[in-house]
Amino acid sequence: MALKPLNNIWIRRQQCPCGDWKCYIRVEGDDSSYQVTKSEMETTATTTSASSPYDTVFMPYVGQIFRTDDEAFEYYSTFARKSGFSIRKARSTESQNLGVYRRDFVCYRSGFNQPRKKANVEHPRERKSVRCGCDAKLYLTKEIVDGVTQWYVSQFSNVHNHELLEDDQVRLLPAYRKIQQADQDRILLLSKAGFPVNRIVKLLELEKGVQAGQLPFIEKDVRNFVRACKKTVQENDAFLTEKRETDLLELLESCKALAERDMDFAYDCTSDENQKVENLAWAYGDSVQAYSI
């Protein structure tokens, strides 16, 4: 969709309440006019009736009410994706009586990057920040009406100081690059089979029948996911190894304590070349006496 520069601000024309992106709300200073035919409106109505409620989301407005803050975030996130940007959670305010009573959602390019107080020795390269002080935002406030908790939009701005992205670009924003559970299982299976990440990505593209680069995630996401899973497995293995060693020491101490209290109690163990216990056997005094008889 076209972008209209107005006073050095990039503004995307808004979706008409009729639900058709081809019908635009007139922007002040815009002399162009657009019309939508009856057949187009009927086609749009048929399409939207079979879609989910958030597929035809409109621009949020001050006073709009949501049941939960998560519902509001999902709504605003859907609107942002259709408009060419993403959002993130900013500040939240809470009180002792209401708990969290305010949530601030802002454009992903809101604010400015803060310089690091301490230089990162391992990664000295400074990445270029995407933040440019964008003022697009949605502020939520909690209220209780007749004993029912709800959230309403207290402030909203859709003014961006940066160019909005097209559909083929907005899907590459980190907020929208997600690996679904089925894809995660498939990636782990292929990784355990020895497939490198680039081959895994190509195989997924073939299985899904999409062109190269059209997956809802990129190769970097797959690489990070595989690395995180391997790290988790290593941490779990280290924890289990430490736990086994601790349990073994406790078992040996218990055997020594029983041998001191019961003269007939017997235990013995074997160790490997690293002096680690391989086998441990014990017999209680009653069992030893019964075997002797």
TrEMBL record:
Residues of the FAR1-related sequence 11-like HTH-like domain: 178-232
Residue stretches making up the FAR1 domain: 74-165
A cellular component annotation (GO) from this entry: nucleus
Predominant cellular place of this UniProt entry's protein: nucleus
The keyword Transmembrane appears for this protein: no
MF GO annotations: zinc ion binding
Alphabetic keyword roster: Metal-binding, Nucleus, Zinc, Zinc-finger
Record family assignment: Belongs to the FHY3/FAR1 family.
Role this protein plays: Putative transcription activator involved in regulating light control of development.
The protein, known as: Protein FAR1-RELATED SEQUENCE
